[in-house]
Amino acid sequence: xxxxxxxxxxxxxxxxxxxxxxxxxxxxxxxxxxxxxxxxxxxxxxxxxxxxxxxxxxxxxxxxxxxxxxxxxxxxxxxxxxxxxxxxxxxxxxxxxxxxxxxxxxxxxxxxxxxxxxxxxxxxxxxxxxxxxxxxxxxxxxxxxxxxxxxxxxx
Length: 155
What we know:
This protein is α+β, with helices and mostly antiparallel strands. The protein folds into two domains: 1-39; 52-150, Sandwich (Immunoglobulin-like). Helix content is 25%, strand content 34%. It has helices at residues 2-34, 58-63; strands at residues 52-53, 71-74, 79-81, 85-91, 97-101, 106-110, 116-122, 126-135, 141-150. Strands 1, 3, 5, 6, 8 and 9 form a six-stranded mixed beta sheet that branches. A hairpin with a 4-residue loop joins strand 5 (97-101) and strand 6 (106-110). The protein is elongated, with a radius of gyration of 28 Å. The chain starts with a helix and ends in a 5-residue tail after the last strand.
């Protein structure tokens, strides 16, 4: 009986170590194969104007001079706000379509005949990265990004 008990303990230990070693090896292999290469962060516009992106239409990109841009008058980039409602004011090409994207919602608007826009958005608590895309009548696109921090903490 002692031999059977000793054999059961040894086989159990070997089986336990084998299963544990297999799990550890599988996790290490999975972690090594799923690691992604490092990417660079998207540039954030530090001023109030953005450089235009090239047109996605090859016919337009070779024939037109792309002077389409966005200027953000308020709020300033990297500003701290105490209210969840923020008004983004700026200018772009006249009658351009605007898409303003936050982490939780998208807003659609249009610039007036002078190219001015004024859009109220909601921001989440904490740091908010806001992207403003403008598309003019020739399908030229310009992009600007803002970082706004919303906090109700008294400073």
